[in-house]
Design goal:
The chain is 26% helix and 21% strand. The chain has six helices and eleven strands. A five-stranded parallel beta sheet has the order 4-1-5-8-9, sandwiched between helices. A four-stranded antiparallel beta sheet has the order 2-3-10-11. Helix 2 packs parallel to helix 3.
């Protein structure tokens, strides 16, 4: 059986501001804010980064003579529950359309969420919250060709994302219907995730390659030091006094 071709993958990136004020603490890179108080500008910058990056990663799997499928990768800013579910469904429909290709391998859906999560692992959107099980339901509903599992990749730049990712890992349908091929969770030891005004991004997204989304000048704003000093640190080091997760 041919190896699966990973350019049969469609991505959905969603961003929602936090509903509260968040916890603000100091650190080597200036003030950091927990993502239950995430600013819309920061989560939107995260989603836009992944929206641009993931199609480029798919293209890296192509040989010089191939063209990628024309998937309409989705970017959702402050979506509702139904908008997220409908978009995941349509992404899965798009990859299912290539099931007759010999190298299809099940097709894939990448999902990115930047914002706030609840202690039970649900992701907070404009009009409520979404569980891991609901997200998987939306991805699997269009799946008719059952010769191969649907591939799923997750980037969760939100609080309590460890719980969300764990819910996906232990979902019984992973035995038969889908395969989690990548999963990244932003939460630290206290299940909070953080964003820094210095970066204009969540710390996870920044540590995975996003350049600062805001322009800072020495002596302006809350950060009173050159950004280069902070960006040499690990993601945990930007939040704590040591370059590791406590």
């Amino acid at each position: 059986m041919p190896h699966p071709d990973y350019h049969y993958t469609c991505s959905v990136a969603a961003a929602c501001a936090g509903a509260g004020n968040g916890t603000v603490r100091g650190g080597p890179a200036g003030p950091r804010r927990s993502r239950n108080g995430a600013l819309l500008a920061h989560v939107e910058a995260d989603a836009r980064y992944w929206h641009a990056r993931l199609p480029r990663e798919r293209a890296g799997f192509l040989d010089e003579k191939s063209d990628p499928p024309d998937f309409r990768d989705a970017l959702l800013i402050e979506p509702t529950r139904q908008e997220v579910l409908d978009t995941l469904f349509q992404a899965s429909v798009a990859v299912e359309a290539f099931s007759a290709e010999p190298d299809w391998g099940g097709g894939g859906v990448d999902f990115v969420f930047a914002g706030h999560g609840l202690p039970d692992g649900r992701l907070v959107v404009q009009d409520g919250a979404l569980s891991a099980s609901e997200l998987i339901d939306a991805v699997l509903e269009p799946r008719h060709d059952r010769r191969a599992k649907r591939r799923l990749a997750l980037v969760l730049d939100c609080c309590h994302s460890g719980r969300t990712l764990a819910e996906v890992v232990v979902d019984k349908r992973q035995k038969t219907d889908f395969l989690l091929i990548d999963g990244f969770a932003a939460c630290m030891h206290d299940e909070l995730s953080w964003e820094l005004d210095l970066l204009g991004h969540g710390v996870l997204t920044s540590s995975m390659g996003a350049k600062p989304a805001v322009d800072w000048k020495e002596g302006e704003g809350s950060w009173r030091g050159p950004p280069a000093k902070a960006t040499r640190r690990t993601s945990a080091g930007r939040c704590t006094d040591t370059p590791r997760t406590p």
